[in-house]
């Protein structure tokens, strides 16, 4: 961070906090003046809420608006609560309609009407149009500020239309081409339009359009945009008429938030929706405690299984030594399968109708893994302890790995069929289930082989 007269971000952070505590606001302005936009974003993610509002008020208007747009929706929401109504209104007016909706989704519902009233009639209508779509739909994340061109227009006429609306549009690099009924018939890039013959017809230079409906899941639409490496994707209504554009920056933002949520839930916590250092300790506790309680209740299944087979353990105490190995291996196998399939679902590599194929594939993977681990674990156990104990361990590893991979693979698929986030069936839940069922398999195999 050579542009800041401090060794690193932590030093700048402490310097700003000390100067705010001392009431030396001029020194705060001097300290943050050389910081880049990226550095200011990182700084705001670490400042406490009240100090964040103080620093924000000291920034020039243009710099403050640019910084606000870079912050995560959670941080934006926190910052809004620390500013006065007049400051909030000024920020809200300068945002694009889709960015306003991002912010409104994070704020209490009672605040939204007051903020919308401060907008001009045109801006209020644009924002209300985006707000009218379901919360998780791409219609909620599209921009209604775009430039469209007519299929029958000449290239020169289309370019004049783009120039006339440059200040109104959020993006002009991908231009939707419409027929007389506002139905999307193609798209044309600004580059192709600029190098085309001015007298050519737009239909001669356009290409087929990849569109998404406004009610489609936002994550799916974002993957279409990023997967096909498009700068923007036209968003249409049920009659294929253009209603907005999903830009690449919003698509990336959607995927970042979705993948953060998936990673959190797979780890057994609720997503924070704001950076770690900007999250109060009470919020960290709240994001974890419910899941821990649920998983603790689930873990009683394992205790119940052990109590049922207590007599078996008393007769062959050596079996207890292998309990951590077996349940750990089963849990890890299930987690690997669940993570792989959840990711494949997110990318569109597999779909709910592929449930049977995924089940067969993961069963085969589980058998292969179980065979390898079973031969290794059973062989070592047979040499160290007893051949019969080695047989128990080997067969249990085979059975547990096969079961765990199958369960881990199909649980995310079942979640998708039930219209539940696959990440909700997180790794801790699968581990808890596999622990209990794996112990049942272990003791049943032991009783059969050891005749106890």
Automatic annotation (TrEMBL):
Membrane topology: Multi-pass membrane protein
Pfam families to which the protein is assigned, alphabetical: CBS, MgtE, MgtE_N
Domain CBS: 142-205
Listed CDD domains: CBS_pair_Mg_transporter
Subcellular locations according to the entry: Cell membrane
Protein's UniProt keywords contain Amino-acid biosynthesis: no
Keywords recorded for this protein, A-Z: CBS domain, Cell membrane, Magnesium, Membrane, Metal-binding, Transmembrane, Transmembrane helix, Transport
GO cellular component terms, semicolon-separated: plasma membrane
GO molecular function: magnesium ion transmembrane transporter activity; metal ion binding
Residues that span the membrane, as ranges: 289-309, 363-385, 392-417, 429-450
Subunit: Homodimer.
Job of this protein: Acts as a magnesium transporter.
PANTHER family: MAGNESIUM TRANSPORTER MGTE
Family from the record: Belongs to the SLC41A transporter family.
Name of the molecule in the record: Magnesium transporter MgtE
